Amino acid sequence: MTLQRKLALFLLAASLAPVVGVGFPILGWAQRELGRRASAEHLARARSGAASISADLAQVDATLSTVAESWRPDRLDEADRRGLLLVLSRQLPAVEASAIVDGEGTTRALLSTRGGAAEEGFLAAVRAAREGTGRGLSLHAYEEAGGGVRLAAVRAIPAADGGRWLVAVRLGTSVVQRRLDAAVPEDGAAYLASGTRLLVTSVRAEPLTEAARGELAERIDRKRAGALLGRSSLAAWAPLAAAPGWSVVVGVPAEVAYAPIVGLRHAALTACALVALGVLALSALLARRISARVARIDAAVRALGEGEVEVRLPEEGRDEIAAVSRTFNAMAEELGSARARLERWNDDLQREVDARTRELREAQAQLLEAQKLAAIGQLGAGAAHEINNPLTGILGNAQLLLEAMPRSNPDRESVEKIEALARRCRDITQKLIRFSQQRAEPDFRELDANRVVAEALALVDGHLRAGGIPLDVSLAEPSPRVKGDPGHLAQVVLNLLSNARTACAGRPGAGIRIATRRAGGDVEIVVSDGGKGIAPEHLPRIFEPFFTTKDQWSNVGLGLSVSYRIVAEHGGRIDVESRAGEGSTFTVRLPAASAAATAA
User: Fold this and answer.
1) What pLDDT score does 590 carry?
2) Is-contact 460 527, C-beta < 8 A?
3) 202-220 b/e with 16+ CB inside 10 Å = b?
4) Please, which residues bridge with residue 394 across strands?
5) Residue 297 and residue 325: Cα distance in Å, rounded?
6) Lowest mean pLDDT among 170-174, 282-286, 301-305, 466-470
7) N or C: which end of the chain has fewer CB within 10 A?
8) Residue 521 has pLDDT above 70, yes or no
9) Radius of gyration of the chain (CA)
10) Largest CA-CA distance found in the chain, in angstroms, rounded
């Protein structure tokens, strides 16, 4: 088989296989799905129509029963019976005629707007219904000469002699047709059927074909609603609850319901034929072009075999034949890509090395900081112990002098200054000792974070009021709980409030905000101020001992260092955010009581 024929068959199979293998099964599935949905819609419409007609018949039944059983026609004279029929005609405007027939079939009263054959047909239908009428309402259809189908609704009333009298009304088909019109599906029709007989149709309804009638007669059930997916029609029916044996039938001819699918199938077949013709023509053109290029390659190979090394093949195109000529270029491109990948890997590795080096430097800086703190702590501890002994003597002697010295003594003020300065020196040495020494195990207990904040606020509230610094307190509810030493944590909060107060001093409008809140498994104590802030170059050093940014040097710069150590002992950390001239925010993060217990 030549290349041209192989290519033609391949293209033909490739183009038609999806349509034949997928398109037609999808169309078949779509037809079945359309039929299923149409049947569901028809069944819903049939039930709706049946319910509407049953409601109308139930009203007729209730009226007949109420009027007839109240008046008892067997005990009335002829005038009263006629009056009873007049009452019925007023209560049932859709009634065309009414009659009362006794148990023997004798007409005892008749009220009709028409006469002659119309009355006789109505009375004949009522008499014929005597044997089949039960306790409830029964519906009967009859042919009226020149008037089409009429419906007779008959109600049996017990008589005094043990027999039954019949009260009947004649119903026109207009009321039923309105209900059927409301149930008509698109391009379909609705019918009122007695058994398998279709007696009343919707407006402009086409009569069913013999095939459709046969399919419906085989499947229709007088007692249960159902649907039919037949070859001739798609139909559904629903029985009337108020009239046994009667049902509403809704249907659409199959050729109408399936018309969109049939049209798509015909269009698909036409498209397949056109595609097949196009593929055959295209395959012929492609085969000629490929054959010419293969012949050119064959000639080049022969020429190379004969020693013509200068022979070259053109590189135009993107198919396999052109790829043969571009092999070397592709190899060179691959080598360039490999080199680019190596350079990219080298850059990634360099970035990774830089990141690890930066992390190592940060760890080294932290280690140096820890060693610096330890060295300063040991130095401070030694100096504090050496100073504390003579300082105790100075303070004691100053206090003894004050006790023995009268207030009028002119030297008393100088002694008081000596005592105050000695006390300050003692406080400084105690802070140095506290910072440096390995402190005893803190008294950890579960405590209320809000209460710790409140105790610290009680110590600084007076200073804040005196300095005119506004304070905003926002405590979480319910109170968050942490596990820690209440005295140590209160000292942390007090140190932060003291620093905030100093930062706000002399800045009109600058205030302090303190808040507690929950953050996942942690509890946060946040102290913010609108003070002067901390310069970026000072932020890395604020937790160093003896470092301070205060305008007036005081408290030897140990407050944040001590706070940092206390929070670390509690398994937490202190974060700081600050902008020079805008204020600072210190966030103390401590494990919540439940999280701390789990970690322990």
Assistant:
1) 94
2) no
3) beebeebeeebbebbeeeb
4) none
5) 10
6) 301-305
7) N
8) yes
9) 53
10) 148
Strand order in the sheet with 522-529: 471-474, 512-519, 522-529, 583-591, 573-579
Nearby residues of 519 by Cβ (< 8 Å), 6 or more positions away: 589
**Sheet of 233-239, strands arranged across:** 197-201, 189-194, 246-253, 233-239, 226-229
CA pair distance 329, 386, nearest whole angstrom: 85
CA angle, 577 then 578 then 580, to 5°:
170
Our measurement of the distance from residue 133's CA atom to the centroid of its chain's CA atoms, rounded to an integer in Å, reads 59
pLDDT at 299 over 60: yes
- pLDDT the model gives residue 22: 67
- Segment 216-234 mean pLDDT: 79
Window from 106-110, 175-179, 402-406, 511-515 with minimum mean pLDDT: 175-179
Name the pLDDT band for 448 (thresholds 50, 70, 90). very high
User: What pLDDT score was predicted for residue 331?
Assistant: 41
H-type helices in 405-558, by residue range?
412-436, 449-466, 486-504
User: Does residue 173 surpass a pLDDT of 80?
Assistant: no
DSSP reduced 3-state for 238: strand
pLDDT, mean of residues 301-321: 67
Nearest CA-CA partner of 91 in 119, 77, 118, 111: 111
3-state DSSP call for residue 22? helix
Q: Cβ(504)–Cβ(469) under 8 Å?
A: yes
| Distant-in-sequence, close-in-space partners of 311: CB < 8 Å, separation ≥ 6 | 300, 303, 304
- Checking if the pLDDT of 563 tops 80, the result is yes
Beta strand 522-529 with 481-484: parallel, antiparallel or unpaired?
A: unpaired
Query: What is the Cα–Cα distance from 557 to 373, expressed in whole angstroms?
Result: 13
229 φ/ψ angles, rounded to the nearest 5 degrees: -110, 85
Six token digits for residue 95: 């009634």
Q: pLDDT band for 463, please (50, 70, 90 cuts).
A: confident
Three-state DSSP class for residue 391: helix
Give the predicted TM-score (pTM) of the model. Answer: 0.41
Residue type, position 9, single letter: L
- Report yes or no: 198 and 192 within 8 Å, Cβ to Cβ: yes
Among 188, 194, 169, smallest CA distance to 234 is for 188
- How many whole angstroms separate alpha carbon 195 and alpha carbon 220? 8
What totals of helices (H) and strands (E) does the chain contain, helices first?
Answer: 15, 17
Structure tokens at 172: 């026109």
Tell which residue, 503, 518, 521, has the closest CA to residue 560: 503
Q: 72: alpha, beta or left, given left = phi > 0 and alpha = psi -120 to 50?
A: left
Question: In the 8-state DSSP scheme, what is residue 544?
Answer: S
Domains and CATH numbers, the chain: 37-270 (3.30.450.20), 326-438 (1.10.287.130), 442-599 (3.30.565.10)
Distance CA 113, CA 172 (A): 13
Residues 526 and 517: beta-carbon distance below 8 Å? yes
Mean pLDDT, rounded, for 27-38: 75
Please choose, from the candidates 454, 587, 585, the residue with its C-alpha nearest in 3D space to the C-alpha of residue 511: 585
Tokens, residue 278: 């196009």
- The helix or strand, by DSSP H or E, that contains position 43, with its residue range, turns out to be helix 24-71
Distance separating alpha carbons of residues 109 and 111, to the nearest angstrom: 7
Asked if 240 and 50 count as a contact pair (C-beta separation under 8 A), the reply is yes
